[in-house]
Design goal:
single chain, alpha/beta, Rossmann fold, two-stranded parallel ribbon, 12 helices, 10 strands, SGNH_hydro_sf, hydrolase activity, acting on ester bonds, GDSL_lipolytic_enzyme, GDSL esterase/lipase EXL3
């Protein structure tokens, strides 16, 4: 495989939000504290995120994000270290750190081996990125087109086609649609019930997959929605006094996932060259929550940052009281995003077992 490219939300955003006007950022400690160099990178975790292992308020380019990243500084990754985009790229032998496409220091060689277009806070619903001023799927497609033009100018049309044919493209988003746009705000509920809203999401997803295919992407991995009702913030907001998992959010995610698998099957039957692969994060995350000791984890119902119940992005800072000393014991870094330790468990379970389906 020659490269890996990612589109999506904060789970695979390695710092694109650092370079746009949004408050959805995490390029500050304690994010990234377990990343290479122990520095925040903009990844929404304490370390790597999935895109690595295989101006808005939505940022994390400040401590404590990135405290375990290389250099111990925030990079814009929503974690303490590396995120899934880093870990997936590493697992397929491309590179250890997958850079953000909007990183101004990118070189041609970085482009040839893959980048991430993901933007924390985005979603399949076109309204979701508008609410927090982050990159929409349409914006990410425009960046992908510019990326292809740059590669073509550097190595020529023939080699660009070869790189595309051998690359894996990973799509990871949808959680913000359910958790934020639907359940945490009144923006969509007056118009849609959950079956209708997940139909809206699927329509957008299908259009996005088709456009990726039309641009030359053939091997496309699509992550399911996780058990979003079990992330700490959703437990706090919708889990009652005992902070249990939100059944409504989990049921919505399950419904979307069932529709997503049907769409993927239809694409593969209609387009013989397509290799769209469903990557199940829902049941895998539930397994970690239900059997933490099996995976070397201890705390699964709150994050490491601050109280762990609600802090995320600008609410998670180096001054947040109560931040844990050892995030490797935690499933979640902040109230929404896993730790690098959790990603290192999740990526092999979700991605590595399915990699043969891309070929």
């Amino acid at each position: 495989m020659s490269s890996s490219d990612f589109s999506g939300d904060s789970i695979v955003d390695p710092g694109n939000n650092n370079n746009i006007k949004t408050i959805v950022k995490c390029n500050f400690p304690p994010y990234g504290r377990d990343f290479i160099g122990r520095k925040p990178t903009g990844r929404f975790s304490n370390g790597k995120v999935p895109s690595d292992l295989i101006e808005t308020i939505v940022k994390c380019n400040f401590p404590p994000y990135g405290r375990d990243f290389t250099g111990r500084k925030p990079t814009g990754r929503f974690s303490n270290g590396r995120v899934p985009s880093d870990l997936i790229a590493e697992s397929v032998g491309v590179k250890n750190i997958l850079p953000a496409y909007l990183d101004p220091s990118l070189k041609v060689q970085d482009l040839l081996t893959g980048v991430s277009f993901a933007s924390g806070g985005t979603g399949y619903d076109p309204l979701t990125p508008q609410v927090v001023s982050v990159l929409s799927l349409s914006d990410q497609l425009d960046l992908f087109k510019k990326y292809l033009s740059k590669i073509n100018a550097a190595v020529g049309e023939a080699r660009t086609a070869t790189i595309l044919s051998k690359s894996i493209y990973i799509v990871c988003l949808g959680s913000d649609d359910i958790a934020n746009t639907y359940y945490s705000t009144p923006l969509r509920r007056p118009q849609y019930d959950i079956p209708a809203y997940t139909d809206l999401m699927i329509k957008s997803a299908s259009s996005f997959f088709q456009e990726l295919y039309d641009l030359g992407a053939r091997r496309i991995g699509i992550l399911s929605l996780p058990a979003i009702g079990c992330v700490p913030s959703q437990r706090t907001l919708n889990g009652g006094i005992d902070r249990g998992c939100s059944d409504n959010a989990n049921q919505a995610a399950s419904l979307f996932n069932s529709k997503l698998t049907a769409q993927i099957d239809a694409f593969n039957k209609r387009l013989p060259e397509a290799r769209l692969v469903y990557l199940d994060i829902y049941n895998t995350l539930l397994s970690l929550i239900q059997n933490p000791s099996q995976y070397g984890l201890e705390v699964v119902n709150k994050g490491c940052c601050g109280t762990g119940n609600i802090e995320v992005s600008i609410l998670c800072t180096r001054h947040s009281p109560g931040t844990c000393k050892d995030p490797s014991k935690y499933l979640f870094w902040d109230s929404y995003h896993p730790t690098e330790k959790a990603y290192k468990v999740l990526v092999p379970l979700v991605f590595d077992k399915q990699v043969h389906k891309f070929f």
